[in-house]
Amino acid sequence: MKNKSILFTLTLIFFAGSKALAQDALFTQWENMPIYLNPALTGNFDGLVRLRAQHRNQWRSLLKDDSYKTSAVSAEYKFSNASARKISVGALFIKDKAGSLDFRNGSINFSTSVVQNLGNPDKALHSIAFGFNVGWASRKLDLENAHWPGPPPTDINEKTSYPDVSAGLLWQYKSINHFSYQLGGALHHLNSPNVSLFDSSVSKLNHRVNLHGNIEIPLVRSFSMVPSFSFSSQGPSEQLTFGFNNKWYPKSSSPNFVQLGIFATSTKNYNGNEINAYVLSATVEMNSFLLGFSFDRFEEIESNAYEFSVGYTFGMAVSKG
Question: Per CATH, the architecture of 2-149+158-314 is what?
Answer without folding.
Answer: Beta Barrel (2.40)
